[in-house]
Amino acid sequence: MDVRRWASGRPRRLWLSHLVRIVPAVSECAGQQAAFVAFRVALEAPLAYWTVLDASLQRVPDLDAFLLYLRTGRGRAESTTEAYARDLALFETWRKASGRDLVRAARDLHALVAHLRMTPIGRRGRGYGAQRSNNRVNHVLTAVRSFYRFAVATGRAPERALALLWEVGDTRSLPGELKPEGGGVQYGPCPATSWRETGTVRPTPSPARRQAGSSASPGTGGTGS
Question: Which residues span the domain enclosing 115?
């Protein structure tokens, strides 16, 4: 339709209101194009698992492989794959909408935390429209880290992505009596990828620091739901 010809001779208020009706908001269009959703896949009865579909309702290959592996390779419950699929759908929606590849997404995981905290729950049902709890955000981060371990192990992501998610401790130069069993390069949780009650992103303690503090009495703080 030739908008200029249609608008000529008509009151400005009339044709502006018409354009508002026929042209959706740009942000809304972008959100629809980048949407990823969790979906149940039935295998041989009674086996089933949950995967992630893109906007064209096609399985996301890397995420699908990971979720199928959890169900059939690790023997996880179907409900576990559902929870992971919903978490990874949030991650993939954010990653694609922001134009990040897997390495950049690992580097900028703090931006995912900010996105999850500032964006209300969009899935219809319990909690719709509310802010995500601290536990919910950390659950998403756990699923994302698990996916990255699988992706690197199967050649779907470069190994350098792990160094962005976990602290790297190289014990190869230590004296033999000080080396832990196995030696080599060891990974621990990386700082800036967990959400605490104070409302700030703080480092997650490394395995060595957690072990050193295991004898201390636990604090009384916690995360809200």
Answer: 78-208
Between helix 61-68 and helix 134-153 the angle, nearest 10°, is 100
- Give the residue from 210, 173, 217 showing the smallest Cα distance to 189: 210
- Residue 26 counted as domain residue: no
Q: What is the DSSP string of 46-96?
A: T-EEEEEE-TTS-B-HHHHHHHHIIIIIS---HHHHHHHHHHHHHHHHHHH
The answer as to whether 156 is a domain residue is: yes
Alpha helix positions (H), the chain? 3-7, 12-22, 26-33, 61-68, 78-97, 102-107, 109-118, 134-153, 160-165, 207-212
pLDDT in tens, 32-56: 345 899 999 999 888 999 999 999 9
The tokens of 53 are what?
Answer: 């579909």
Q: How many domains does the chain have?
A: 1
Q: How far apart are CA 31 and CA 117, in angstroms?
A: 17
Contacting residues for 25 by C-beta, under 8 A, at least 6 apart: none
Query: Which H/E stretch holds residue 166?
Result: strand 166-170
Q: Could you tell me how far CA 182 lies from the centroid of its own chain? A: 31
* pLDDT tens digits, 122-142: 777 777 778 888 888 999 999
Contact 36, 54 (CB under 8 A): yes
